[in-house]
Target: C2H2-type domain-containing protein
Amino acid sequence: METIIKKNGANLKNDQLVETADTDINVKISTDKNEKYFACDICGQKFDEKRLLKKHFDTHRKLKQYSCDVCHKVFSREGNLNQHLWTHTNEEPYSCDLCHKCFSLKGNLNKHLGLHTNEKPFSCNVCHKGFSLKGDLNWHLRVHSNEKTFICYLCHKVFSRKSNLFQHLRTHTNEKPYSCDVCHKFFSYKSNLFQHLRTHTNEKPYSCDICHKRFSFKNILDVHFRVHLKEKPYSCDVCHKGFSQKANLNQHLLVHTNENPFSCDMCNKGFFYKAGLNRHLRVHTNEKPFICNFCHKGFSQKGYLNLHLRIHTNEKPFSCDVCHKSFSRKSYLNQHFQVHTKEKPFSCDMCHKSFSQKIHLKQHLLIYTNEKPFSCDVCHKGFSRKSSLNRHYRIHTN
Model:
């Protein structure tokens, strides 16, 4: 069949099934008014040209006659092989006009452009989630159908995407084909390499709509957003304390088991997790690698720097549900809340006087110890409280 058959509704009443002489492909030719197309009899996909249908039909026959000389992966189309070869040569001929990011495949560029336009014309009929590409929607639909057609021959784990299976196989082979040009660290997945590169460039493309804090990774933004929603989906089975991150729950569970797998070589202090040990070691080295861009004050922990920055930005993300007063730290909010509850959990063993904050109890105990840790630089008089020392200074300054 060498010509495209045009339908006007007068010559043919029904769709016809035609077998092409050169491909033995069953072609369903439309007889709808003012339409012309070739449809695959197997999956129903429609094409404007016969040559496109012939290419498509190879996917059903699983005919893959083009092989990669590097990794021996086979393809049904020469164009797909040529695009694949760029993964070995690191050639990226397609670039984004907006951010100049480069891609080896045009399809990946089109997918990337959706980040700038945020256009999502394809939506799921089940959960109404939007997608920028129809292919992504088709993959997503397998979440609802629980369709997993790709099986690992080593551990028999099943996957809904072939690409996920290929990535999974690297857990068995320990293959890490992607390396960082800066620190030469290797990664199993290209996406992990891209994320890692942001640690060198300090790129933070994701920002919070509420407090405008920026993040290098979207998953960290998603976790951060739980601070505003007060969402804590992970809870401890022992004490029922809630956590916004599963990693924090796992670390917390060590409190109940009293397990300290990491210990300091200098003072033998034990820690629940390695990050805690690394932070502790800076006590001995007096290392303060985190510097404030405003006042250049150094901090041993990034969390301390983030808290300090709120002094300059005047950010107060924690607010009281009762009086709506805002605070820069959650601990300050917790202390303030005792004003409303009249709770005084800290009591003196000597006189049994109660206090709402632990620091007030410590100040009170100085009455019994007669300790005066604050002294005047001028006359060397000692005081039990810093506020008393500040009042005393007025004698000298007046």
Q: What stands out?
A: The radius of gyration is 33 Å. Confidence is low (pLDDT under 50) at residues 1-28. Residues 50-61 form the longest helix (12 residues). Residues 239 and 256 are 9 Å apart (CA to CA).
